[in-house]
Amino acid sequence: MVVNAEQLERMRTGKGFIAALDQSGGSTPKALSLYGISESEYSGEAQMFDLIHAMRTRMIKSRAFGGDRVLGAILFEGTMDREIDGIGSAEYLWSKKRVIPFLKIDKGLADERDGAQMMKSMPDLDALLKRAVGKGIFGTKMRSVIKTANESGIAAVVQQQFEVGRQIIGHGLVPIIEPEVDIKSPQKAEAEAILKRNIVAELNKQPSSQPVMLKLTLPNSANFYAELIKHPSVLRVVALSGGYSRDDANRKLSENHGMIASFSRALTEGLSAKQSDADFDSMLDATIAGIYAASIT
Asked: Which residues does the annotation mark as catalytic?
């Protein structure tokens, strides 16, 4: 495994959180709408992705956004392939902001089966990973969703996540394994118990010299994932906001010691295309301060 040693150590020991800037495809119109840009203000996919890149660029270039509080940022493939001030987005993040770049690699969710949605197949993954390495990406992120406490469904999700994770490690990248538990699940606590058991079984087969990261839904019981946080084969455990409001997500995160944020919608909540740069920076600064504080408990 050949990864950037400085980035690896920073991710292992640094204080801060990971910014999830990876909305793509179907979630982009909603992200733009929350940012104050309605679908009537653009036409076609190309213009839509230009606007979301402008939003992400504005966030990344903001004085509020930097490696003192933001450890890493997860990019959508289209963002990785674009530039910020004439520099590749991933390279800009690390060289200008000291923020470690990650790439969202999954192609969406398959249909629900056994109470879970696995990832769609990724036949072109090796080619994408080679491109990511060339562009200075440190790690990757991929998401599955668990809806019920179904043993076979959860086992299949975890097995797929780790299988693809090991393919990613083979390219010298660090995978963020993300088996999200739906916060609306009536069996959330039971699903989390099954999930943890399956993850531990996989981690026990994983060499500590080839660590993975885990991105998990904030659990029903505080410190429920402490065993995973301490596991020698885990680089970091990060939390997704999963639909909780930012205040609720921060409160829950602060109760889970050693877990750090990797928020998406909760990070952009309150930001608007119509804000002046001063108001935008002030809002983002306050948001980052709150998420950072919850991430260092």
From this structure: 178, 215
